């Protein structure tokens, strides 16, 4: 099994490398202008040459995203737990949450700027507002799908609703919770960068906006690559934590036989 997994990983890395090689060759053969689509080699060169300048902005974006993400997780877990165990809360809060989630967050950023001024706070709030909804939905779904027969048995044994929630409901939601975390952390980056492009003078979003106004397309793509790298890194971290915490829920190794 280990050999199969390693072979699959090598195949995946090879295909990713082939994608970038194809991108490089296509730009060279077609004579594509840097103002339209820079070559990957140009993007990586720009990234490493400008890293001393980019590093403070990377830290700013990462810090802002993680604060907004942490607050979104806390809010999402609480709301999801309340909605998942209460029919009244479900019928009351769920339509409001869906309505709020349907609002384009670019329309919310000016309101945050009006309330708190430009800078870090609007970026944190934008990241929070865009990432907490998947967590609410998954926590509520996990609690709502707890087997009623199991609840009846626990009630017959004298367990209270709080006991059932703490000992059965929340552990039952762990696979749903980690699935939502991996989605929400990527959404948090979207919210942070969206706010940084509109109302901040720091962060990768601001760097990309400034580079775009100066027609420095390789720098814009360098910002995209950095954001993608941070998102992938955090996704991998949560995947590793998930494998440790919810290993009992994995029935098989996905795609192992592909």
Summarize the structure.
This protein is an all-alpha fold and 258 residues long.
Number of helices: 10
CATH class of the largest domain: Mainly Alpha
| CATH-derived topology of the largest domain | MetI-like fold
Rg from alpha-carbon coordinates: 22 Å
Q: Please give the domain count.
A: 2
CATH superfamily of the largest domain: MetI-like
Cα end-to-end separation:
12 Å
Largest sheet descriptor: none
Assign a percent range to the helix content: over 70%
Second rung of CATH, namely the architecture of the largest domain? Orthogonal Bundle
Which class of secondary structure composition applies to the elements?
mainly alpha
Q: Spell out the helices and strands N to C.
A: HHHHHHHHHH
User: How many extended strands?
Assistant: 0
Q: Name the beta content range.
A: under 5%
Question: Which regions contain 5 or more consecutive residues with pLDDT less than 50?
Answer: 253-258
Chain-averaged pLDDT: 83
* Shape assignment: globular
Keywords for this entry:
about 260 residues; mainly alpha; MetI-like fold; 2 domains; globular; disordered C terminus
Overview of the structural elements:
This protein has 258 residues and is an all-alpha fold. The chain has 2 domains: 1-32; 36-249, MetI-like (MetI-like fold), CATH 1.10.3720.10. It has helices at 2-30, 40-49, 51-85, 87-102, 109-116, 120-144, 148-156, 161-199, 204-213, 217-245. The longest helix has 39 residues, at 161-199. It is globular and about 75 Å long.
